[in-house]
Design a protein that fits this description.
alpha/beta, four-stranded antiparallel sheet, 14 strands
């Protein structure tokens, strides 16, 4: 059975890698190494495919989990563990490397936290942070055998500390968390969703913002559209409205076009290249001079 599961995970990892156009091979190896069922709770499981139609697995056989599906974690709150193809494509942007320190905000039940831990290896370190207490407890239990992972419960705005090479979030923000940007080492990458309101309660629509530190400057660009849960602690009506005004309107059936941005500026006054501004920061359509 163990050999069959290992082979199933290998096929799943290779499939996800192809779907996400992964070139960073450690991503595929990490997906092949981490047992998804460990982080899914007891079966049977409710899963969602590409059409987002719910199916319940017939039993606790983990086979159906090894596909590009969402797994429900808390049906009452609409929480799931995220689509593998989506996460693999994010990791391709970040390229986690051995020895790096990662902060994972919105760790959920810990599955993708474990995949990050695989990629940074024993010399690296991952801090997972989850706002929902029950999910945080589940993640801590499932990650207990990984000495390079610490799991924290509570508000990531307060808990994210220390120098980081990567900060990645799985909840949507209406402003750039400036404190997190300042945690980045030179060459560090932050990938967060910037999301306005959507038609779905508690879920925002917007874009994945990738910020890369280059010495004293910060490159910025959008790397894809997303629908994702709101950050639970710091959103405001005013900031959400400003972001909604800046994001392009998408007509039904039309392709989404990413705003053309180039840099994140800190501590200076916005100029005519400003796409969006907040307290102490602004996003420019021009590279840093």
């Amino acid at each position: 059975m163990a050999e069959e599961l290992a082979e199933l995970r290998r096929r799943y990892a290779e499939d996800i890698g192809r779907r996400a156009a992964v070139g960073w091979r450690p991503i595929v190896e990490a997906f092949a190494a981490v047992p998804r069922e460990t982080f899914a709770g007891p079966g049977p499981w409710k899963i969602y495919g590409g059409d987002l139609q719910a199916q319940v697995t017939p039993d606790a056989d983990p086979g159906p989990l090894y596909a590009n599906v969402l797994i429900s974690l808390d049906e009452a709150k609409g929480l799931n563990n995220g689509q593998p193809q989506f996460w693999a494509s994010l990791f391709e942007r970040l390229k986690p490397a051995p020895g790096e320190r990662v902060i994972h905000v919105g760790a959920g039940a810990g599955y993708y936290t474990a995949i990050l831990a695989e990629m940074v290896g024993p010399a690296g370190r991952v801090t997972g942070i989850e706002f929902e207490p029950d999910l945080a407890r589940r993640a801590a239990a499932s990650l207990a055998d990984r000495p390079n992972v610490e799991m924290l419960a509570g508000d990531a705005h307060a808990l994210a500390k220390g120098a980081a090479d990567i900060l990645v979030a799985s909840c949507g923000f209406d402003a750039v968390p400036l404190h997190w940007v300042r945690l980045l080492n030179d060459g560090g990458r932050m990938l967060i969703p910037l999301t306005a309101e959507s038609a779905l309660p508690g879920i925002g629509g917007g874009a994945m913002l990738l910020v890369t530190r280059r010495g004293a400057d910060y490159d910025a660009r959008f790397v894809g559209w997303t629908m994702i849960y709101h950050d639970m602690s710091r959103r405001t009506e005013a900031a959400t409205r400003r972001l909604a005004d800046a994001l392009p309107r998408v007509e039904p059936g039309a392709a989404w076009q990413a705003p053309d941005i180039a840099s994140l500026r800190i501590g200076t006054a916005p100029d005519e290249t400003c796409w969006l501004a907040g307290e102490g920061w602004w996003i420019s359509t021009a590279p840093d001079p």
